[in-house]
Structures are given as structure tokens and as C-alpha cells.
Design goal:
The chain has 485 residues and is mainly beta. The protein has helices at residues 2-8, 282-286, 311-316, and strands at 34-41, 44-50, 55-56, 62-63, 72-78, 84-91, 106-115, 118-126, 132-137, 144-145, 170-173, 179-184, 198-203, 210-217, 222-231, 234-241, 260-265, 273-279, 294-299, 302-309, 324-330, 332-333, 336-337, 359-360, 363-364, 366-368, 371-377, 381-387, 394-401, 407-417, 421-427, 434-440, 445-455, 462-469, 473-483. It starts with a helix and ends with a strand.
Length: 485
Amino acid sequence: MDNIIKEKFNNIKHTLSYKGIGHRNPLITQDFGADPYAIVYKDRVYVYMTHDILMHNQDGEIIDNTYQDINKLKVISSSDLVNWTDHGDIHVGGLGGASKWARCSWAPAVAWCEIDGEDKFFIYFSNSGSGIGVLTGDSPIGPFRDELGKPLIDRNTPNVKDVVWIFDPAVLVDDDGKAYLYFGGGLPEGKNEWPNTARVIELGPDMMSTVGEAVVIEAPYMFESSGINKIADSYYYSYCSNFTSRAEATGDHVPLAGEIITMKSSSPFGPWSYMGSILKNPEHFFGTGGNNHHCMIEFGGRYFMFYHTSVLQDAMGIKGGYRCTFINEALVEAGKIKPIIANKSGVDQLMPFNPYKETEAVTMSNNAGIKTYEVNEDVHGKKVYLGSTKDGDWISISQVDFGEKGPDSLTLCFASQGDGGAVRISLDSLDGDSIAYVDISDTKGLDNFVEVTVPVSQVTGVHDIYFTFLDGEYLLDYWKFNEKK
């Protein structure tokens, strides 16, 4: 049987990836993801993104992204910042969404805190530019519910009626347990230099109410994309500068267009001291610009900046404002965030990957051709599976540490119908040494999952591994190498 399966992979043509081998940016290529916001929970980073979707005209041609049909958020997570697990979508607005009153879900901000002895998670989302809603859940991937049933922030919120765009939130849970929401944007006519459309407001202890009125943040040339960080005893507010002319501007508070700007304060409400640019517009690095949206976190004693670019759509050969998420390290020295260098290399993997734990099949460092599938499941909300579309599709896992003993077998969980398919696992490249083959036999239905264990060739130490797929109607749930006794 093994020889028959091996022959099926002879002369196979591998699907081309949208990111180069060795590149760690964008984080994922199986979907778009914009306006990233990241949190750290139990030694893992979760990234929440606006789920851009391709828009088409009546002739089926791709058109510019208007964002008006976006009502889902994309969630991924990682413990090493290179291998990312796809947790699928959070359905926010529209039919079947958690928020029946909302049409859109843009630019999420996420926080978690302990309430009544339990960890609770809160997603603050933009209903286009007209208001901000909040979802709550008991885990970082949901399921999420809208307990408020209406916007948390809108034009009836004290001192918000003059904000042009009520969107792009950022949230901070301070050391004393108090929480603050930052938001706003847009340009009132004739106020390009001082729009005064950014706001901060205190959240109630339930994280779903507000305390007092919103306070104006005087941010020069502010446009959108609020960010907030506390470093030591200082607060750093950040935002994207607007694209208006600087022809007659003077002073040391005049940023270039579309850059991420920081200001510093000793209070979450300000006043703020202008610090300057920390991230140039993506056009500076990649040749294609657009809006600039960001989030910075601390993880493992280091700082990392998440932001979006148009690199994925460029690799796909399309245009229209469809975004993907990148990550690069941010350095903080002497109380100042240094300018960040954006690139496709991304960040170094923080730790080797453990192959001896059960790993969801939708975990990958790179891929080509694959698709993910969501299946609704009782109290857990949903399950995300990996599916292949044609011969030569593949995923990779970076820096897998097999240790000194190595494995003697591999267990793969899948469901299949019809002719099934097959999987080949190779080392260090798509054409590298093959260490295992799995025959995907018919399980009589895509809801009937089975475990199959196959032998593995001798392998020790650290390697990248590649799963290459043959065409078939099947779903992969998880895999695990079994260490030699």
C-alpha cells in the first residue's frame, strides 16, 4: 500500500504559495485579515482582524473593497509568532450574527479580565463608522454573544456627537483594574491639523458600560486607528495620521501622511506629549500604500507591532484594497518607541514547535491552495478543519523539534467520503526526504472522523515539515507524532 501511495506523489506539481519560502509575513494567506488587534492569554497570542472578502461586479470581476459587506472577524493564534492556528470567523453583524442591530464589523479591539472569579473576553467592534458595539465570551475564540444588544458608544455618548467616525477602538485594562476605551477619527471641515476627533472614555467594571463623558485627545493630523499601550508608568497613545496637504504646516508636530504616530502621557486621559512617527506607511516598504492600522503588544519581554499591508492582494495579482496582517518587532529604549522596520521576513520563531502534542490541522507557517472549513458544534460554537482542493496543495510547520529519540509513528485524524486522498510528510522542503505517508480512506461521511496511525522514518533534531495533499473530499482535524519509547 505504501508504494502505491508513494507513486501517486511522483512528479507532483506543488501549488505556488502567495508568500516566499522563508518569509513569515503575511501571517496567513488562506484569508485576508485587516486592522489587526492582538492580546496575550496563557502564553499565547491571539490576533483578531477585519475579515476582508473579495467583492465582485455582475460580470464576476473583482472590484474595489467598499467594506460594507464585512460582518465577520478573523481569529488566529500562536505561541511562537510563526506557526499560526486558524480559529475561523466570529460572526458579528448581519443575518446569523451575534449583534442583530449591527450591519458591519470592522477594526476590533479585544481585552480580557477576571470578573467574579472567571476570565471574560470582550471584543469592541466598529459598526462601520457609526458606533462601537461589544461582544463577550468565556474563551478567546468564543463563542461570543451580544449581551448589551445595542451600541456601547454612539452619538448619544457624552462628548461624542462631534466625532466624525465613531470607530477604530483600542482598549486598555490598567494595573488597578480600571479599563479605558480609545476611539474615533475623521476630519471636520477645515480642521486638518487639529481634528480633535479622537476620544478616550472609562469603562465600567462590567466592561460593557461607560463612566462619565469621553475626553478629547488632541492629536495633530489624526485620522484613524487608535492604539494604546502602557510601558512602565507611561501611557502611549498611537494613531494613523491623515492624508491632507502639509504644504503650509510648521512645527515639530507635523507627521508625513498615513504614518503611525505616538504620544506619551502619565495619565490614561492625557495631556499628551507628541513623540513622532514609529511606522511609515506600507507604501514606503512595499510599494503599495493605503490606510495604516496597527496594534502593539508585549510578549515574552519583547514588543511586537501588528499592522496590515496590501502584499497578499499584490501577490494574487489583484487590486482593490484587500489587506493582510504583518508582524515586526518594536524596540523600546529610554522611554521611546523606535521606528519600526516593516518587511516580509517578519520575526524569528520564539521557540521550537512540539510535534508530540495534538496539533490542529489548521496550524501552519505557510501554505498553498488549502481552504479551511467551519462546522458548527453544540456548546463549543464551531470547529475549523483543513481541506484540500487539488493535487499539490500543502502546508508547512516551522522549526519542529523531534528531540534526540525522534518519533516512531504519526497519528492523523480525518473524515472522508468517496475516493479519499493521501498525505505526504517531508522534511525541510516540499521535495525533501519523505518520512510518512497517510492513505485517506473513505470514512463514509465528512462528519465521521477516524484516527489512523502510520510508521515514521528515522528523524531527530529540528526540521521544517511539509504536509502535501492529493485531491480528495476530506477534512483533517488534527495530527500528532508519537515519540519513541
